[in-house]
Amino acid sequence: MVRDDLVITVPSFFKCPISLDVMKSPVSLCTGVTYDRASIQTWLDNGNNTCPATMQPLQTKDFTPNHTLQRLIQIWESHSSNPSLLSQQLALKLIQSLTQPSPDSRLNSLTQLAHFLQHPDPESSDKNRELLVNAGSIPVLFGLLSGHGQSLELSRAVVRVLSLVLSDSENVRKKLKSDSVSIDSKPYLMILQSGDVDASTDAATVLEALISCRSDISAVTECEDLVSELIRLTSSATDARPICAGISCLVAIATRRRMRSQIVRLGAVPVIGRLLAGSDSGEVAEKVLKLLETLSTCSEGRAAICEDPAVVPAVVQKMRKVSQAATERAVVVLWSVCHLFRDGRAQEAVAKGNGLTKILLVMQSECSPAARQMCSDLVKIFRVNSKSCLSSYDTKTTHIMPF
């Protein structure tokens, strides 16, 4: 069994003395030496009357199947064909092969790296990730991704490995901050435009990590086509993973204040508003509310939220249904459009959705002081409509009403 690519050591007694390969059907001669059936049969058919290993004359050319050895080989193959842990030697070999000019060699190495990084055993995959990071894989992978003339297939393979390396690891992201990596928007845009949802998800994941860790990435964050493709990914995907990856990347881009109006202008608000209203995923709702909170800090974002008739009702609907963090983000959005922006359409939507009741409940909960103050500001906004807004409100919380 030749597995040089994974540097697997084959036990010597599993090898046929003639072919030197792992035996598929081991049989024993009368001398007690075991060979692979095909190899020894060829030896005998060629007129030889001796044991190839000992050169003893054969009393008989009959051989006996060695079932015990065959079973041992099968057990060994089942384990060795799916190794879980990278050795340092193999990690360095695979990383070095990524710098070679051969596209086939690079793809083969990337496939092996992905295998080790997505192993079903979390402990093994974590150890492999740490080993690869410490072995210097991150600069090599980013350098390969930003190389000129790279094929779409190779770019997909690189972002697959990078997304696995960078996933859920603060230590890895700290390493990313200090490493010198090449940054170019073109490969990510090419992948996002390809329509491959899995590859696009990986690209968005890598972009989000890169944007969150680095400040010198204006070439990426200010690429309008890239933002448009991320919005398209969130609007066209049906599974939570690509949607969350796209929104998380948009949130990372929106941390650059000057980018918020561009994200709004490219139509993000209606898209994420529909997601918020129609998704049952708590993870999606939380990420959408985080993006809406960020966009509501700019005037263009507040205007877009108010102009879309579905957004504010969806925010009210999701209040107190996802998590404490999501609830407070919803409060920020409502405070921005109802109190800060003073938009009548938003105020009416909150009133119709029994939003004041939920705001009062948030005030009673263990929310942050900032969220409680925003709730208080919102209550004052709705004072004139308090009777109609509170017609169905449980009196257990009326003691906090300031009127």
Descriptive account of the structure:
InterPro entries: ARM-like (IPR011989), ARM-type_fold (IPR016024), ARM_PUB (IPR058678), Armadillo (IPR000225), PUB22/23/24-like (IPR045185), RING-Ubox_PUB (IPR045210), Ubox_domain (IPR003613), Znf_RING/FYVE/PHD (IPR013083). Pathway: Protein modification; protein ubiquitination. Functions as an E3 ubiquitin ligase. Residues 9-83 form the U-box domain. Its EC number is 2.3.2.27. This protein is elongated. The longest helix is centred in the middle third of the chain and has 17 residues, at 197-213. It has 3 domains: 4-80, Zinc/RING finger domain, C3HC4 (zinc finger) (Herpes Virus-1), CATH 3.30.40; 84-255, Leucine-rich Repeat Variant, CATH 1.25.10; 263-403, Leucine-rich Repeat Variant (Alpha Horseshoe). It has 403 residues and is mainly α. A 3-stranded antiparallel sheet has the order 2-1-3. Mean pLDDT is 85; it is low at 1-7 and 387-403. It has helices at 37-45, 67-80, 88-97, 103-117, 122-134, 137-145, 152-166, 170-178, 186-193, 197-213, 218-221, 224-236, 240-254, 257-265, 268-278, 282-295, 299-307, 311-318, 324-340, 344-352, 355-364, 369-381, 386-389, and strands at residues 26-28, 34-36, 64-65. It has 23 helices and 3 strands. The protein starts with 25 loop residues before the first strand and ends in a 14-residue tail after the last helix. Helix 12 runs antiparallel to helix 13 (240-254) and helix 19 packs across helix 22.
